[in-house]
Design goal:
Elements (H helix, E strand, L loop, with lengths): L1 H22 L4 H29 L5 H7 L6 H16 L7 H61 L1 H55 L5 H31 L8 E4 H18 L3 E5 L8 E4 L1 H17 L5 E10 L6 E9 L21 H7 L5 H11 L3 E6 L5 E11 L9 H4 L2 E2 L3 E5 L3 H13 L3 E5 L2 H11 L3 E4 L8 H15 L6 E5 L4 H10 L3 E4 L4 H11 L6 E2 L8
Parallel strand pairs: 2-4, 9-10, 9-11, 11-12, 12-13
Antiparallel strand pairs: 1-3, 3-7, 4-5, 5-7, 6-7, 8-14
Length: 572
């Protein structure tokens, strides 16, 4: 038995230690041996517990049970005495005199030497019993084989055909379960796509009107509040995207696109997002990084990085009652490969994470302190999503924390040098350019119509609005616009059918193709592909902003350089 083997090893180690302590209780080696006794005693205690349990259940052979129960030298009782004496010798709080320590060690050594042979007898008895049982099993196996042959003959007649029917029925159930699983997966995908569409549609109005407000006469405080409103709306949009990405990650279909972004600005935007919450708790929130003279402009997976930092800062602010939360941004370059790696550490002065919770804190629905989470809120999904996103960008995330001393979550991920930015106008200035184009806006949502039309009018475009696909086809035929912005989900005729109808008319009349850009709250990859397949030349997901729309127009007419609007002069 494994408990016997463990008992042998532990007793042998303690026996050597007892003898060394007996020879010189005050030596440095004796101190080491006491530590060894302490460790061996733990294993021995576990082995003794298993032996007692097995003995109480009569799990040993008759010979082994008799040896363990003998009254003259009861092995289990002697084992208990040895463990007691080992505890006395190893306990640093007990101040034993040198003679007593030597005497205790001598007595423990003697008991150990007496007990090991007895346990060896038990081991031999168990081996012999096992050998006898093996021989019996061979005989039983032969009998069973003969019985089996008879059983096969009987089963061939009375079991085979019923079993065949059972297997066919089981296979039918498995196939039905598979179909149900596929239907559930399809229902989940439809649900996520529908919820994404229904949330993006009003969010497009919120963010679009907030951007339009920024172009009006506002005070500094009002502009700051609108910026925070836009940042919060964009954070909600990123959460929606992350839910879709998490679903794709679970299905093995997560696709991330690398893009150019400024890591310093990204961290600062996250700070601006959580600054009101930090101020309400009277804690400081800041960024510790050298602006870097442009070296923070890199190419990488900014969407995933942003969501990771948002999750980490959200947790830090949530679980910090006093002190500060700091984002520390650094760059590390490998000397051999020259690969650039960014390091973003979120450090707080909260209660910290206990050692036992560090390994599981990145798992779903896991929280280090459930009582605190009940007070401040949370689902336990943030760090699980963070880990999945980190793995998706080939990064690494880990935690350094001591209970009562705060926590530091460290994200490290590879980036590449960003290409030169001079080839394309800055997005911040794109909104001031003017395009002299006729644009047909097809959208059934009145708020979205207002937002898009205001964006286009701000860029000098003439616009007309269609509330469904049928109106869009009719207006495209009568008005001859330079561009059609086509929603997908519309009554009577959806945007895909309307696009196909326009393309069919152009093909039949050999007319030049009018550019059609999909503008929809359907943000899944398959929605984009469906739009392109229907004949759209581009596809934008809601919510959109003026800069995104201006960039789309610039891609359509690269040879027609847009002109900035002239500044209006206001008289005092």
């Amino acid at each position: 038995m494994s408990a016997l083997d463990e008992a042998f090893v532990s007793l042998a180690e303690m026996s050597l230690a007892f003898e060394r302590i007996q020879r010189n209780p005050t030596s440095q080696k004796a101190i080491v041996e006491r530590s060894r006794i302490r460790l061996s005693a733990r294993s021995a205690a576990g082995a003794l517990t298993e032996l007692k349990l097995a003995s109480s259940r009569s799990a040993f052979s008759a010979r082994g049970q008799k040896i363990l129960a003998q009254p003259s030298l009861n092995p289990l009782a002697e084992f208990d005495d040895i463990l007691f004496m080992s505890k006395v010798l190893a306990d640093p709080q007990r101040q034993n005199s040198v003679p007593k320590s030597a005497k205790t060690a001598a007595l423990a050594s003697d008991l150990t030497r007496r007990l090991i042979p007895v346990l060896m007898q038990v081991k031999e008895a168990e081996v012999r019993a096992s050998q006898i049982a093996s021989k019996r099993q061979v005989v039983y196996a032969i009998i069973a084989a003969l019985t089996g042959v008879c059983g096969v003959l009987v089963a061939a007649k009375y079991v085979y055909f019923p079993m065949e029917r059972f297997i066919i029925k089981a296979q039918s159930k498995i196939e039905e379960s598979r179909r149900r699983a596929e239907a559930a997966s399809e229902a989940k995908s439809v649900f996520l796509a529908t919820m994404s569409h229904e949330i993006r549609t009003p969010l497009n109005g919120v963010l679009g009107l907030a951007e339009l407000l920024m172009d009006t006469e506002l005070g500094d405080q009002q502009r700051h509040m609108i910026r925070i409103m836009k940042a919060s709306g964009n954070s909600l949009l990123r959460i929606i995207n992350d839910v879709l990405d998490l679903s794709k990650a679970e299905a093995g279909k997560l696709e991330l696109e690398a893009e150019v972004f400024d890591a310093h600005s990204l961290c600062q935007e996250v700070i601006d997002l959580f600054l009101p919450q930090a101020r309400s708790k009277n804690i400081s929130l800041g960024l510790a990084a050298d602006p870097g003279n442009g070296r923070w402009r890199v190419s990488g997976y900014s969407t995933a990085v942003r969501q990771i930092v948002v999750n980490l800062v959200s947790n830090a602010v949530k679980f910090t009652e006093r002190g500060s939360v700091v984002i520390d941004l650094k760059e590390e370059t490998a000397e051999t490969t020259g690969m650039r790696t960014l390091r973003i550490a979120v450090r707080d002065t909260g209660n910290g994470v206990p050692q036992e919770a560090k390994e599981s804190i990145f798992e779903q629905f896991t929280q280090a302190d459930a009582s605190r989470t009940a007070r401040v809120g949370g689902t336990g999904l943030g760090l699980a999503i963070t880990r999945k996103l980190t793995e998706a960008i080939n990064g690494r995330i880990y935690l350094e924390s001591t209970a009562g001393s705060g926590s530091e979550f460290i994200l490290e991920f590879p980036v590449e040098n960003a290409p030169a930015a001079a080839a394309e106008p800055d997005s911040a200035h794109m909104t001031s350019f003017t395009f002299s184009k006729k644009v047909l806006v097809a959208d059934d949502n009145r708020v979205n119509q207002i937002v898009v039309v205001k964006f286009l009018e701000g860029m000098g475009c003439a616009t007309k609005v269609a509330a469904n696909g049928a109106e869009a086809v009719e207006l495209e035929n009568s008005w001859s616009p330079d561009l059609v912005l086509m929603d997908v989900r519309m009554p009577e005729m959806d945007g895909l059918d309307a696009t196909r109808a326009i393309r069919a008319k152009e093909l039949e009349g050999r007319l030049p193709a009018v550019p059609i850009i999909g503008l929809s709250a359907n943000a899944m990859r398959e929605d984009h592909d469906a739009g392109i397949s229907a004949g759209m030349c581009d596809y934008l997901s809601k919510p959109i902003n003026k800069a995104k729309l201006a960039n789309a127009l610039a891609r359509l007419w690269p040879n027609e350089h847009y002109k900035p609007k002239e500044a209006t002069v206001r008289c005092a």
